Amino acid sequence: MSVINGRYYANPQYGRALERARAANAESRRVHGEEQPSWLDHFLGLVGPPSPPLPPHPTPPRAAPEAYDDAKVNVLRVRQIANIVANENRDVKPGKSSPQELQRAKIAQAHAIINADRKYGTQRDDVVGTAPKTVTGALASSEQYKQSLDAARTAFQQQLAGQDPIGGRMWFNHRNNADTGARHLGHEQVGVFEQFGPFQLGKHTRYTIIDENPKYMPKPKGKKCLSQNRSCF
């Protein structure tokens, strides 16, 4: 038995011919940049059976909807944000708009509240006034409250993922017509970023407006607050 290139062959002529074929095949693959095993590698048993594909990573379980309700943004908890949204939109119905449009408006308001809480914390009420952050038992058990809670949860999770559809804006208001004129905030006139509606509040039409932030952001300490919208400048 002869040893040729580290391999044993009972037939030396066959072994030398096979080794020459292997060397020629390897050189051809090197020149052509081939990386896959050749037919000769398979023939010689130098390549094992293909490995089975790895199983896909299991999808992590989704958190329950209520998992974030007690989570804090800065000072406000997600449920308190829902309370504000519910109070802001109490008895408001889709009207001529779709329920989805009204829910989009609520999500946008929740984002605005989150943005204001992050910036002003305990002084948010004095700078960016909104409806109260507590609700009555009747409102808390209503379908409208469930929608507001869903809006707060959605906005909170979007912000956790780095998404803010209103781009850091903090002020919103409601109007009984489609007027998109500037709003007076302190010493500035601010424009409209986005408008939702028309919705229906009793016999009245209502639009929800997300305002642009003022050019000069208000300072919360030692400033006089406007009685109408509690914005301090």
What does this structure look like?
- By secondary structure, the chain is of the alpha+beta class.
- It is built from seven helices and eight strands, in the order ββαααβααααβββββ.
- It has helices at residues 12-31, 39-43, 78-88, 99-120, 124-127, 137-140, 143-160; strands at residues 2-4, 7-9, 92-93, 172-175, 183-185, 188-190, 192-201, 204-211.
- The protein has a four-stranded antiparallel β-sheet. Strands 1-2 form a two-stranded antiparallel sheet.
- A hairpin with a 2-residue loop joins strand 7 (192-201) and strand 8 (204-211).
- Helix 3 (78-88) packs across helix 4 (99-120).
- The longest helix is centred in the middle third of the chain and has 22 residues, at 99-120.
- The relative contact order is 0.12.
